[in-house]
Design brief:
Oligomer: single chain
Largest sheet: 9 strands, mixed
Shape: globular
Number of strands: 18
Order of helices and strands: EHEEHEHEHEHEHEHEEEEEEEEEHHE
Strand content: 25-35%
Length: about 375
């Protein structure tokens, strides 16, 4: 079988997300399966060029996985004629400049979110990419989680009847870094470095909610519950970014969505993120992998009586949705779709404008918090 190589400049692969999800579980996983089979029978073979700030980390990473192309010089990587795609998993504050350089070099661009710190910057990148005639995409990984794919199956099948509301709970306790090492990088808690849970998670919630119905308004309350943390070098620093957000969103059709996002909560649910959709005909609760439903015909009739202990096992009254298919890693699935978009011009819905819609909701969420009011979410036009 014929093999065709495609060079991918991967910037930020020494970070947690860039390494685990994008290099290890996506690009290297595609190589392990023998490449990506294209429509004409050719196997597309990704050739990553690793880029980062630490020469020692890059050298170690390349040696660990048998790779030989790495550099701390982004311009050098972008100048290589054997690279067609640029991928960015850096801190948000470094993203815009790097993407502009990649577009100027004529590379197709795939990037982590947020696309930029603000809506103006995100739209400017989208228009710049269009003018350059390059293909562009933004990671929207949660759409490809097994639990949310099952939820989408239910929506498309009309299971809910008229959807009434959506409730989401996301988060876990991120250690402060003093007596236990933090699970997230310290820049996440510094607004000046592009940190903050609203900027991070509202970009996700935009595409998750839009898959149910378009978002029309937002109210949000943010908080910095932990005002001081300890960084990777053991030095205390002031947390200037929000570490929790409590949002209310109105969707088309009068659907009300409430989503809590927090790095300062301890988990008492089955998965780190869960969404419940309630409709006139049934309800569903979906997490990362599982999805359970309760149809109208199977809904019990609980009676409020605070004087007696509860006798019903409410969880047992729900039915599990079967997989009915084999689910691959969501990041890898979207990578394969983007590579097909680049090489075969296959459809790809999650371009820079989709990324800009996420930044728009985050920006409006931050404004709603500052001003203490509900804000409309205007439609973005290309």
């Amino acid at each position: 079988m014929a093999r065709k190589s495609i060079g991918i400049v991967m910037n930020g692969v020494t970070g947690r997300m860039g390494y685990r999800q994008h290099l290890l579980r996506s690009i290297l996983a595609i190589r392990e399966q023998g490449g990506l089979r294209l429509a004409d029978g050719t196997d597309l073979w990704p050739e990553p060029v690793l880029v980062g700030r630490s020469e020692a980390k890059l050298r170690d990473l390349a040696a660990r996985h048998g790779l030989d192309a790495w550099t701390t010089d982004l311009d050098e990587a972008l100048a290589r004629p054997d690279t067609e795609v640029y991928f960015d998993a850096q801190v948000t504050s470094a993203r815009v400049e790097a993407i502009r350089a990649a577009v100027a070099a004529g590379k197709h661009v795939y990037t982590e979110k947020p696309l930029a710190d603000d809506l103006a910057g995100a739209l400017a990148l989208a228009r710049l990419a269009d003018e350059a005639g390059i293909k562009h995409g933004v990671v929207q990984d949660k759409l490809f989680l097994p639990g949310l794919l099952k939820l989408k199956r239910l929506i498309d099948g009309g299971f809910f009847g008229r959807i009434l509301s959506v409730r989401g709970e996301f988060g876990y306790w991120v250690f402060e870094g003093d007596w236990q090492e933090a699970q997230r990088p310290s820049w996440n808690y510094r607004a000046e470095d592009g940190g903050g849970i609203i900027l991070d998670m509202f970009c996700h919630w935009r595409y998750v909610l839009d898959a149910i119905a378009p978002v029309r308004s937002v109210q949000a309350l943010g908080a910095t519950h932990i005002p001081e943390r300890v960084d990777e070098d053991g030095k205390p620093y002031e947390a200037t970014a929000d570490d929790a957000a409590y949002g209310i969103f109105e969707l088309d059709g009068g659907i009300v969505a409430q989503i809590n996002s927090s790095w300062t909560t301890r988990v008492f649910r089955d998965e780190l993120v869960e969404f419940q959709i309630d409709g006139t005909e049934g309800s569903a609760v979906a997490g990362l992998r599982r999805c359970r439903v309760q149809h109208r015909s199977m809904t019990p009739k609980p009676v409020w009586n605070p004087d007696l202990p509860a006798t019903e096992d409410f969880r047992s009254q729900w039915q599990e949705i079967p997989d009915n298919t084999e689910f691959d890693n969501g990041f890898k699935t979207q990578w394969e779709m983007f590579l097909r978009h680049v090489t075969e011009d296959a459809p790809f819905a999650w371009d820079f404008y989709a990324g800009a819609r996420g930044v728009q909701l985050a920006e409006l969420g931050l404004q709603a918090w500052r001003e203490g009011r509900r804000l409309e979410v205007p439609e973005l036009r290309r």
